[in-house]
Hints:
- By secondary structure, the protein is α+β, with helices and mostly antiparallel strands.
- The protein folds into two domains: about 5-205, Lambda Exonuclease, Chain A; about 220-300, no CATH class.
- The protein is built from twelve helices and twelve strands.
- It has helices at about 5-10, 15-20, 30-55, 105-115, 120, 125-140, 165-180, 195-200, 205, 230-260, 290-295, 300; strands spanning about 5, 60, 75, 80-85, 90, 95-105, 145-150, 160-165, 215-220, 220, 270-275, 275-280.
- The protein has a five-stranded mixed β-sheet with strand order 2-5-6-7-8. Strands 1-4-3 form a three-stranded mixed β-sheet.
- The model has no long low-confidence stretch (mean pLDDT about 85).
Amino acid sequence: MEKELSASKAGFPCMRNLWYTVNGYSTEGEANKRTQRIFDVGTCLEPLIVEWLRQDGWTVEYNPGSQEAELKVEIPVKGGTITGHPDCIISKGTIQNALVDIKTMNDRSFGEWKKSGTLKAKPQYATQLHIYAMGLMAQGRKIEHLGIVGVNKNNSEMYIDFFSYDPFRAENIKDYAGQIFTGAREPELGCPAESWACNYCEFSETCGLHKKPAPVVKGGEPLTLTEDESIIAAMHELRQSRELAREVREMEAHAKEVLNERVRDKGLRGIQGGGLVFTMTERTSQKFDSTAFKEAHPELLGEYTKSSTSVVYDVKEAV
């Protein structure tokens, strides 16, 4: 039986996972169930997003039906075939014959992708689109652009990131797939750098390389190990929110640096443009100098100091 690898799977950043996939290993557990649910949500929203594109003036050639869609690509490589079903070809204005794939993302993922672009933030999506493009161009279709239509599942924001077809990348994809198809046994590789890949791996038990983290001891007792999805999701949200908060602080610092250089340092008190109004107001405030008070009156420090209790939340990657 000929081996097949789907375009949507081909960019997964773990060769072992792909080897298990093409060799028919059974999928396992909650990771596979969660992945399928994410896929199902995207499939349900896809027709609605196509309508949004048309409302925004795009001409859309839509290929409905997900894995049963009429339009299919097949790319033969050494040892097997890469297959897939493209989503859409869209055109408007200067953007013509753009092959796009529709993706729904959570707020954090959407923000990172919109900021950094598909090639950097979601290279697996670029791999998927290159496969579709190879197949369609082999069928004589004209493809001038590639793109991801991303929708934020938290607030329904829609954004399109276009990029160019790279023939060298396309050849590398075929070579890589050939290595997976012809491998006699699973590749001897450690877990990928992207931690999400192991978290969403449906072959984690078979693989055995995703070692369980060592137990953490706090207060002389090992921490309770949980599989409660709501608790795990909350921990991930806390970590992601802090990463986003750090990025926001960096963005604000950069914006202030530019505004100080281009506005304040030129003696302007404000500026207007792009539908925005920016002003600066200097304020003088007074603060109690606790360090000086401690040095001047150390005997009074204890009398005017009181204790309070707070909870410090810490979350980090288990190792």
